[in-house]
Amino acid sequence: MSTPSLVRRGITAVALAAFSTAVLAQAPAPTPTLNTGDTAFVFVCSLVVLLMTLPGLALFYAGLTRVKNVLSMLMQVFAVSSLMALLYAIYGYSLTFVDGGSLQAFIGGTSKFFMNGITVDSLQGTVPELLYFLFLTLFAAITPAIICGAFAERVKFSAVMVFMVVWLTINYVPMAHMAWGGGWVAGLIPQDFAGGNVVHVNVGIASLVAAWMVGPRLGWGSTSMAPHNMTMTMTGASLLWVGWLGFCGGCALAANGFAMLVVVNTFLASCAGALSWMAVEWVHRGRPSLLGLLSGSIAGLVAITPACGFVGPMGAIVLGLIVSPICVWAVDVLKPLMKLDDSLDVFGVHGVGGIVGGLLTPIFALPALGGVGFAEGRDLGTQLAYQTGALGFSILYSGVTSLVAFMVAKVVCGGLRIDEEQEVDGLDVSSHGEVGYKLSN
């Protein structure tokens, strides 16, 4: 594969405009050379992406559940992340990034199954391919785990695992290939730097399907289901924030000023999203909450994910300020209207935030607003058209494949839900025979 595809779509034409066409035509193809600075940078980014998953996402979700389900949430995120990483090593990486021949538009090839041919000398750009594999595998590990927040507190553990295997295979891997591995979506040149479609919009729609297929928790709408440990949730959200800087910044695959711009954009959008959500809540509810502050921080991070490589710092701030009120509306107004128990508001934050971020990216990519502009021959209108088309495909494909994956899990596991008595007792005891807290012997 040529220079890794996470960086190049959309910014390539803008970057090359600074060079002479004649010089480029005469220059020989560069020989891939290991750069130790780039390698060290991407390795650190990989470590913090792992940190945002384990323990970050696990703690964030676990604190939001009731006390009787805290351990089950930790269990699901840890087990799902581990399983997804192994499957990605066995076949997912190859199907994402190897040329698929006649099927290249939709899926990659099989030549790197079981990591065949990936050696200590293999390079992707200026970094070892083993490191490139690790970085992208961590994306594959966290993305399905985010969906666990949608069906928290009432799903069979076996159904979770079966669903995730099918979903990774028929959803994540093809979507990642089509967007990052040279598939047809990449040919649209949407401005999606770090996975707004493949990660956030995708899991948001999958969470709607999950809430519909699994049904609401017992007592939903009439019984208090407040988070049991906001200290745990704050710790997890903070780790997510740290990890997100590596998640987006590492996509530059180089230790340079552009990577630092991506990191700064990601950081500032999160700050703005946190304060924006807090302000809206303060005005309409009379007091700000820690949950609102943390939710806004995540909403800002979600919205900047597609935009972080195309906008300037001030655009990132405005994007964060805009997305949180829309996500508040999705959680407080749209969710009750849909009557779907998306337990931890995955759709309201990731789905809606991802859509908003994707649609606003071309606007804040305008040079007049501090952005990098568009590929040659495009203006705001045409870029928005391609952006909307890519988003529409992601929504449709995620909905269909997620439904199929849940139906398979339902058949294989004899249903998706635990029974009512087990739900009342909590998943910690009924599914795992353990408790999250033991205060006395």
Keywords:
single chain, disordered N terminus, 2 strands, mainly alpha, 441 residues, two-stranded antiparallel sheet
Polypeptide structure, described:
There is one protein chain. The chain has 441 residues and is an all-alpha fold. It is built from 17 helices and 2 strands. It has helices at 5-8, 11-16, 21-26, 36-64, 70-97, 129-146, 157-180, 184-187, 196-214, 230-249, 257-285, 290-307, 313-338, 346-364, 380-413, 420-425, 427-432, and strands at 123-124, 127-128. The protein has a two-stranded antiparallel ribbon. A hairpin with a 2-residue loop joins strand 1 and strand 2 (127-128). Helix 5 crosses helix 6 and helix 14 packs antiparallel against helix 15 (380-413). The longest helix is centred in the C-terminal third of the chain and has 34 residues, at 380-413. The N and C termini lie far apart (58 Å). Residues 1-27 have low confidence and may be disordered.
